[in-house]
Design a protein that fits this description.
mainly alpha, 15 helices
Length: 439
């Protein structure tokens, strides 16, 4: 079969466009629920949870299907074109049920490209260039997300006189970026010269650069592999316990992050512009700290970095409890709320990479891809449960209670994770981290 040649770095154009499309809609779910559907924080939790369920199921389905047929490009096109087509349906949304249905359709179709995008780049590159390819891809993902958020901020500001119409317009602009990305991929990206099963790529670790921008990051290579073979090497009790701790950590994080935009809108009296700025701050700080976090792990070790970064988060969550109870709407309150969310983005870089590195170190070499797959999948379960609980607690007991419950769950998750993590004597044995991008 004749090999298709990929035109140098032009293959990244499609991903830049699609990440811009994703970034532009990042803050839209809470805004659409509040301003377009007059929904509440419980509805936000339900919506986020259902969309996350669709993401998890779709990731497993599309990843396994791609491995079965040994095709890549077609799945990227399905993801990008499917995203475009599903976002057109926003024009017909009139109630919460219809909105959730559109999001589910979007998640199912868009996830077709998620476990494939990084793979097709790796499979078209020499092994010695994988680190460079992934670094460029992460950069493209970061730039695209930030550009999308900037574009959304401009649109929401310039067209603020018709907010409902602007929210719908932003969704359609996002769809146009996905369609443009599909055109670029069809021109510049070819089928790989060789195909590799994802469980063989244990050296290529997946980590969320963004915590919860669209339920899952721009790419995840490893996800639970059902019925397609894979390593039979057991994970070990310590690693299983660590995965349980990581799942509870994600659950706790979600209980804080999901209702937070509505806290900004309802309690701090912020507008839609502030919500966009909040997400933009989170994305920019996460991107800036991404490389710093990797170097910190190399120097201090995954355990120390995880403990320190999670402890800082616990303090922030606890500090926000009295703030949520007693603070009143004010410009200063809005700035504090935005600043906290931005800082959490930077802290997540340290948590996400230290967790993936720990999983890689604890797993046997033959089972590392499998272990990372379970890590991503169980984190998805934590997202689902945390999103659901956050809406319930925030609605019936208030935002302060949700933040307190979040901190409590994070403490439990960290305690479980630390029971399984071995003590690190020296950082020189650290597994080299090669990540694929993003919450």
């Amino acid at each position: 079969m004749k090999e298709e040649k990929i035109s140098s770095d032009l293959w990244y154009i499609g991903y830049l466009l699609s990440n811009t499309g994703s970034g532009i809609t990042t803050p839209l779910i809470p805004l659409f629920l509040v301003y377009y559907l007059n929904a509440n924080v419980f509805d936000l939790g339900i919506t986020t949870s259902v969309a996350s369920i669709a993401s998890v199921v779709a990731l497993i389905f599309w990843g396994n299907l791609s491995d079965f047929f040994r095709k890549r490009k077609i799945f990227i096109l399905v993801g990008f074109i499917g995203s475009f087509a599903s976002l057109l349906l926003i024009l017909f949304v009139r109630d919460l049920g219809e909105y959730i249905m559109v999001l589910v359709i979007f998640q199912v179709l868009s996830m077709a490209s998620v476990p494939i995008s990084t793979l097709i780049l790796i499979e078209n590159s020499e092994k010695r260039k994988w680190a460079t390819v992934l670094s460029k891809f992460n950069t493209v993902a970061s730039v695209g997300t930030v550009l999308g958020l900037v574009a959304g901020t401009i649109l929401i500001t310039v067209l603020s006189s018709d907010l409902k119409g602007t929210l719908v317009l932003i969704y359609e602009v996002s769809g146009a970026f996905y369609l443009a990305g599909a055109v670029a991929v069809s021109i510049f990206v070819g089928e790989p010269r060789r195909t590799l099963r994802r469980q063989w790529l244990w050296r290529v670790n997946s980590v969320r650069i963004w915590e919860r921008l669209r339920f899952f990051p721009a790419t995840i290579i490893h996800i639970i592999n059902i019925g397609m073979g894979g390593s039979r090497k057991p994970l070990g009790n310590d690693l299983k316990l660590y995965l349980l701790g990581s799942t509870i950590l994600m659950l706790g994080f979600q209980m804080f992050m999901v209702p937070y935009p509505l806290f900004l809108l309802e309690r701090m009296g912020a507008d839609e512009f502030a919500v966009f700025m909040m997400y933009l701050a989170n994305a920019v700080i996460a991107a800036l700290t991404y490389r710093i976090s990797g170097k910190s792990i190399d120097r201090f070790g995954s355990r120390r970095v995880l403990v320190f970064s999670v402890f800082i988060r616990i303090l922030i969550f606890l500090a926000m409890v009295p703030f949520a109870i007693y603070a009143s709407a004010s410009p200063a309150g809005v700035l504090i709320t935005i600043g906290v969310y931005g800082a959490l983005g930077g802290i997540w870089s340290f948590i996400g990479i230290s967790q993936v590195n720990s999983v890689s170190l604890m797993a046997k070499s033959e089972a590392r891809g499998k272990a990372i797959g379970y890590y991503n999948s169980f984190n998805g379960i934590g997202q689902i449960i945390g999103s659901l609980l956050s809406g319930f607690v925030a609605l019936y007991y208030g935002f302060g209670a949700a933040f307190l419950a979040s901190a409590s769950m994070v403490v439990v998750g960290l305690a479980i994770a630390l029971r399984s993590l071995p003590a690190e004597k020296a950082p020189k044995s650290r597994v080299e981290i090669k990540t694929s991008g993003s919450v």
